[in-house]
Design a protein that fits this description.
1 helix, 17 strands, 33% strand, globular
Length: 229
């Protein structure tokens, strides 16, 4: 991550992504502000930056073969955003595992990423997709603005597929600046408080005061250096 983002790097958040036998593949999508669910940007890059989104380390905890929800990418798409996250999406758990797109069962955990398309008639060119199976313990690093998806879990085995995605930024990126008053994030069909949130400095130094930084743990209690504003 340092070779991509520079010497001063934060880990912003981590997310587990399980896929059970018969589950749909994940929609083709790009992520810039991480505000797609509620239309409110969760991150902000410094003015004048030509970068956006996060760098993700996608780590396979189990084997992820082509018929078991491995990752897919559209090379070169990180240079053009096909989605407008400010639109927000509508959550409906009944949508899950019900829609085929170009003959492939796809969705996004109760959301439909196509609601965010800038051009409602645009369709991703599946012929350009690169499919990357992984064994347990292998990982992929990619910018979230690179269009990505996953294949369905075909159910040929009773085993689940499990992966964890860790998100990284340089320390100059502002996290959850739009949630300071409410201190609540709404996404993925639920909401959660930022009371105990703190990013983790994983490399270098943090010379900024705009983020909460988790500094250390003593007797099970986390201490966080909060934004003084």
């Amino acid at each position: 991550m340092v070779s991509i983002l520079g010497p001063d790097v934060l880990c912003w958040r981590t997310e587990f992504f399980p896929k059970y036998p018969g589950n749909e593949g994940t929609d083709w999508h790009q992520v810039d502000t991480f505000g797609g669910a509620d239309g409110i940007p969760h991150i902000k890059w410094p003015n004048g930056s030509d970068f956006g989104g996060a760098m993700t380390a996608w780590i396979a905890f189990t084997d992820a073969g082509e018929d078991m929800s491995c990752m897919q990418f559209m090379p070169g798409t990180q240079h053009t955003m096909y989605f407008d996250e400010s639109k927000g999406m509508h959550y409906d758990p009944k949508k899950a595992n019900h829609h085929e797109i170009n003959g492939v069962l796809r969705g996004f955990f109760g959301y439909d990423w196509r609601e965010l398309q800038k051009d409602p008639n645009w369709q991703p060119d599946e012929s350009q997709a690169v499919t990357i199976p992984c064994h347990a313990g292998q990982f992929l690093i990619f910018p979230t603005t690179l269009m990505h998806a996953s294949t369905p879990h075909a159910g040929k085995t009773k085993e689940m597929r499990l992966a964890v995605a860790s998100r990284y930024f340089p320390t100059s990126v502002e996290l959850y600046g739009n949630m300071r008053e409410s201190n609540i994030v709404h996404e993925l069909g639920g909401s959660y408080s930022l009371d105990n949130y703190g990013a983790v400095l994983v490399s270098g130094r943090n010379e900024y005061t705009h983020n909460r930084i988790r500094t250390h743990t003593t007797k099970g209690k986390a201490f966080v250096n909060c934004n003084p504003r």
